[in-house]
């Protein structure tokens, strides 16, 4: 199979290296660096770092300044009167300014759960970008090989035009001597013009492919003139490494972290507090003077009943995780179906390539005989051009199939995620 593929590979590789090649690997790397969404990963990392810093502040002392001024219609009074004893009354206008300092001691793992959830979301967000980058890889591969196919068309058309012009020069001598009709030369001239039209179409096709490749990679078209046909890729039984499958796993990890965080909300929370203030009344409610005061202690919070909110939330997360698992299995099934189709295409191209060289050789022999007969005046230009066109078509088909075969093997690896 490779007896006529490898010479073409070596020829294209050697020519490209001489001019400064732009291989497919370089196109992939350039497109990845140039892709705007890659900066989204950096933004995700920075946002996560800021969120983690905020989460860590949950373990630091929290200070709060509170102030209050009130007037109430009634106050507590002691309905007792004693001789020679003055019992002060509580003022109806009250003022209070306090500084509360709290220190978390135990939060049931809520802070740790928030941290793990943010890290899981970071991985999922980064992997979404990898999915987009893999699609970009497929797009770059397709455009790159389209340019190579157009290049093969250009080479074949150049060869055909050169052949027609050479034959026209020989017949022109017969026209000048009066032994050949001028219409025969005109037919060759018309075919040369037709070949130049086809050549221009191929050149424009390649330029369009290079312009698209330049847009995707951030390179100039002059840097990509020397494209290199890669070697065929292996099509073994390696496991799937698609970024979508990793994304599904990370999304399940996000749901798992959310479930753990939800579980932590049912646990008791313990904190220490200190409060210092100034107001009227202070801690002595029977005093009508402004006074300083302070107090400290421990505070326990434990939600004993919340109408089964956590249980319902866990059920919701479980169903979401089941849905993601179903998506993962469906994607795996579809990808394996694509691999079977791609393997069939590789086999079809491989079988066709085994006949291409023989077809080109036979078409070349027929064309050479037709050219000799045309030179000897025993064949018409029309019949010669038919054989020349058949040879050119066979050459283009053979070269195109060689490129398509390499593309199919590489696309097989891209489908698998490599």
UniProtKB/TrEMBL annotation:
It comes from the Bacteria. The keyword Mitochondrion does not apply. Keywords: Cell outer membrane, Membrane, Signal, Transmembrane, Transmembrane beta strand, Transport. InterPro entries: OMP_efflux, TolC-like. It is found in: Cell outer membrane. Gene3D superfamilies: Outer membrane efflux proteins (OEP). Residues 1-18 form the signal peptide. The keyword Cytoplasm does not apply. Belongs to the outer membrane factor (OMF) (TC 1.B.17) family. This is TolC family protein. It comes from Chitinophaga pollutisoli.
């Amino acid at each position: 199979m490779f007896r006529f593929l490898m010479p073409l590979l070596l020829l294209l590789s050697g020519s490209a290296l001489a001019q400064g090649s732009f291989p497919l690997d370089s196109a992939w790397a350039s497109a990845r660096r140039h892709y705007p969404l890659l900066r989204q990963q950096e933004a995700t990392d920075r946002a996560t770092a800021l969120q983690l810093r905020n989460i860590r502040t949950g373990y630091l002392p929290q200070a709060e300044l509170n102030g209050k001024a009130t007037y109430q219609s009634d106050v507590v009074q002691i309905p007792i009167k004693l001789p020679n004893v003055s019992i002060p009354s509580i003022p109806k206008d009250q003022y209070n300014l306090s500084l509360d300092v709290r220190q978390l001691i135990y939060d049931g793992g809520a802070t740790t759960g928030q941290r793990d959830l943010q890290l899981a979301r970071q991985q999922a967000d980064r992997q979404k970008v990898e999915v987009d980058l893999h699609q970009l890889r497929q797009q770059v591969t397709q455009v790159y090989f389209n340019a190579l196919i157009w290049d093969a068309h250009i080479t074949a058309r150049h060869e055909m035009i050169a052949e027609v012009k050479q034959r026209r020069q020989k017949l022109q001598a017969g026209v000048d001597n009066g032994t050949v009709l001028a219409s025969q030369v005109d037919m060759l001239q018309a075919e040369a013009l037709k070949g130049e039209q086809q050549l221009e179409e191929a050149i424009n096709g390649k330029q369009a492919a290079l312009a698209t490749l330049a847009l995707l990679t951030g390179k100039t078209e002059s840097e990509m003139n020397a494209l290199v046909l890669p070697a065929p890729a292996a099509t073994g039984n390696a496991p799937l490494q698609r970024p979508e499958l990793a994304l599904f796993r990370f999304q399940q990890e996000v749901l798992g972290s959310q479930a753990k965080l939800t579980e932590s909300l049912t646990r008791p929370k313990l904190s220490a507090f200190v409060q210092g203030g100034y107001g009227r009344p202070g801690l002595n409610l029977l005093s009508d003077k402004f006074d300083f005061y302070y107090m400290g202690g421990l505070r326990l919070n434990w939600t004993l009943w919340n109408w089964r909110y956590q249980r319902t939330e866990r059920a919701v997360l479980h169903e979401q995780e089941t849905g993601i698992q179903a998506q993962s299995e469906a994607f795996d099934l579809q990808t394996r179906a694509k691999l079977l189709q791609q393997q069939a295409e590789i086999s079809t191209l491989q079988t066709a390539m085994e006949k291409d060289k023989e077809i080109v050789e036979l078409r070349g022999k027929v064309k050479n005989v037709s050219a000799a007969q045309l030179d000897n005046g025993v064949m018409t230009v029309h019949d010669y051009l038919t054989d020349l066109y058949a040879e050119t078509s066979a050459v283009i088909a053979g070269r195109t199939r060689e490129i398509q075969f390499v593309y199919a093997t590489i696309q097989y690896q891209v489908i698998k995620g490599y």
